[in-house]
Design a protein that fits this description.
Layout (H helix, E strand, L loop, with lengths): L1 H11 L9 E2 L5 E2 L14 E9 L11 E5 L4 E3 L6 E3 L7 E4 L5 E9 L4 E5 L8 E7 L2 E5 L9 H4 L6 H4 L30 H8 L14 E2 L3 E3 L3 E10 L6 E8 L13 E4 L11 H4 L10 E3 L17 E2 L3 E8 L17 E3 L5 E2 L5 E2 L4 E8 L4 E8 L11 E8 L4 E2 L3 E3 L5 E12 L14 E12 L2 E11 L9 E6 L7 E7 L7 E2 L3 E3 L2 E5 L9 E12 L7 E7 L11 E3 L39 E5 L7 H4 L8 H4 L3 H6 L13
Parallel strand pairs: 3-11, 23-27
Antiparallel strand pairs: 1-2, 3-8, 4-7, 4-9, 5-6, 9-10, 10-11, 12-23, 13-19, 13-26, 14-17, 14-18, 14-25, 15-16, 15-19, 19-20, 21-22, 23-24, 24-25, 28-29, 28-39, 29-30, 30-36, 31-35, 31-37, 32-33, 32-36, 34-35, 37-38
Length: about 650
Amino acid sequence: MKKHLLRYALLCLIVPATAGCVKDAADRIVPAPEPDLIGFDYATSSPTRLSVGYRDMGGVRTNVYFELYDVNPVEVAADGSCYRLREGIEPLFAGYTDENGWFDGVVRLPAYLEKAYIYTPAFYAQTLMEATLDGGTLIARDEVSEITADAATRASGYYSEAVLKDGWKTWLGTYDDTYGRIDYAYAGPLRNENYQLLYKASTEVFNTSRPCPQEYRSSKDLYLNESAEVAVTMLGSNTCWNCSMGYYYYREGEQPASLAQANVIMLFPNTQDGQWSNNKNLSSKYIGVKRGTAVQLIYYPRIAEGSREGATTAFPAGYRIGFVLATNAWTNRLTGFGGSKKYRAATSEGLSINDQGVPYQKPRTAVYRYTNEKQGINTVLFSFEDYTTDQNFSDVVFTMNSNPVDAVVDVPVVDDNDQGKTSHTLKGIYAFEDLWPSRGDYDMNDVMVRLDYEKRFTVKGILEESFLLKTFRNQAANDNGLALTLTGKAAGAKITCSTCAPGSDEFVAADFAREGDVLLLTDNVKTSTGTIYKITAQYDTPIATDSGSEVRPFIYRTDRAGLQPGTRWEVHIPYEAPTERIDWSLFGTGDDRSVPTEGRYYVRENKYPFAFFLAGATDSDLSPLLDPANEKTPVDELFPAYSEWVLSGGSSQADWYKKK
């Protein structure tokens, strides 16, 4: 009894004054009648305007793929050099900006979201931004670099240790001795005029916070099967180091025995482009090369003799071209990341050198040929992994063109036929009581279902949508089925279905019973606990991003006593209309206060619903509901902020289920 009196006394502190507590004749505190909550819809998500702007990408204007999280999705490496994507968290939304790096649209997001984190795997844009709520709009803008260098970086007399210590040749031209900016940039036809279109393509392979796929990692130099001219275009970097980059060449079968014997020629003395995403204000003071800068490679037939005689832009057939990155070789270095490094990453097998100066075999470059017939692109992309081993292979990225275009062979090919990018996002968790229209124990765990969403899309729109529903173990006595209603474009699309058994990661084709827009996934969730049901809608032509569909999960039974012939018992979230098969006679009976003629369904007077959807909720968030020890414990006793959320009409403690 004392426990209940204390609970009611505490409740008085959060109930509005008009609904306060009273005392009886014995001067005891008793609860006032709970306020009428029929008008409260228990919604935990709302349409939110999202505005994302990448303003500073080193002169690049292109589409940026990004993801939105409610927690910081990255952690910083111990030495501060790079970000790593945290394991076990899912984004709440994913999309593309327009071609100018801007996104502005209305997105359904959890109501608790007052701050969000915008993450992109693209090396060419700021990896992480915070989005803050301002006037109902979540706004994220990248950090604008300061371009004024401090006194130290304006000094002269800096140099590349790759030249002074390694003996690289500076035969292509000169560069300044402050930043290492070259005066031999190439503006001819081999400069990749479509280089900005390659930034989006690069994100399909190079992700700044995930390992580069093994199939693109290479210790193989580029082989020319015919005489060709060659030029490279710098796409950019995302690193704290001020590296030097060079090239070398040799006849097939005559690879140099060591890097010291390779006769390396300097391309870029300082590959720092000022766009290091961890600290652009710092890196922008040390810019050595602008994105889009190109250099044509020169062939010196007598280079082994130290002679430039016979120099030509045409490389002979049967030769291989290699590239090498010297970590932090430019001596004008970012504050906090100074110090000489012996580290050299080369494309030739066995020529790379670790920081102890010892050669090793492990690939430190990724290479592939990217083609897009519609855009007229056929080029080779390179990416270096520099000193820090974060495995993302996006520390220095450049593209190489040749004339003839197919002179370079033996390179993995990625064909871009606008198949789109697939993103996986978390929607939230549905929780149902299964005694409707009677009142239950309101532990809200009779059926719990996690909803995830996948879409395959391009900048032009959505090509495919998938809805994944995972069931959880429960203590319910009833045998409840799980179904959903398709909405939007998905209702008229081609639908395929599959399931994934617990402990497996393979989806197997399934055939769900369908009634118009309704799919019946299982007639008893207890027989398939942990199963993931996947429903995929495929579109012949892309649909607009803001035309994305939704599904409306619900539980059902057809064997409940007293059902009218041909009908079924269904439980939906508050105010959501049932299907046509519902037994309409159940509304308004027991504890239910629905009025179907007014569009009011599945509502009660008091503070427990028959079901709700918790947007952005994770398995961990709702672990108290899944704990067998908490069976028959009302939800407000497991989540102390729940009552305030309900009694405030959702205006307070919107993140109640994120608190335990």
